[in-house]
Amino acid sequence: MGVIIINFKAYKEGSGKQAIELAKIVEDVSTRADDYIAIAPPLLDIQEIVSQIQVDVYSQHVDAVSYGSHTGRITPEMIHEKGVKGSLINHSEYRLKLADIEFLVSRFRELGLTSVICTNNVSTTASAAALEPDYVAIEPPELIGSGIPVSKAEPEIVENSVRAAKDISSEVKVLCGAGISKHEDYVTALDLGADGVLLASGIVKAKDRKKALEELVGLR
Question: Which of 46, 68, 204, 213 has its CA 20 to 30 A from that of 8?
Fold first, then answer.
């Protein structure tokens, strides 16, 4: 049906043992849903999840550097070696310079990694699409974590972003983020032309995370 990427962020509910538990929930639900569901857990939990659980794992961030004297940095090569599918790039909580975004998309392409560039409006979506990533994810910052879905609050941003991206490259897929938590939010995003959604707290911080994910994909 569509694409769902769940960003665990640095939430307590999405790190350590709880990250493993949530990854197992995603694995279970993904076997029963028609959707492609992937996760972006904290870096310290990635290796354990990749080795134990059959879901695609994305990094939440990668630095625009290759191997070398870059203390504390995370290179594209490092996540590739760990079996990670790809990474979010330029999330609103971790903005990058345009040159760094371009470097990462190019290097990801060389390594066979999937790039997901996060954007905050129509014009940046168009600029991101020009770099030909695999995905652009439109997320107005003011709606992130608000519980108010962008697909309802600002549907024109989704529609116009989809149009702007597709006009530049028909191969670029568009995700809708910010405030997505329910099945109707997801369906509305798809109806507006998005290929899927990028979400976080609606699943990660839900009281019953399995129920919330099942409801999102329409299993309840």
Answer: 68
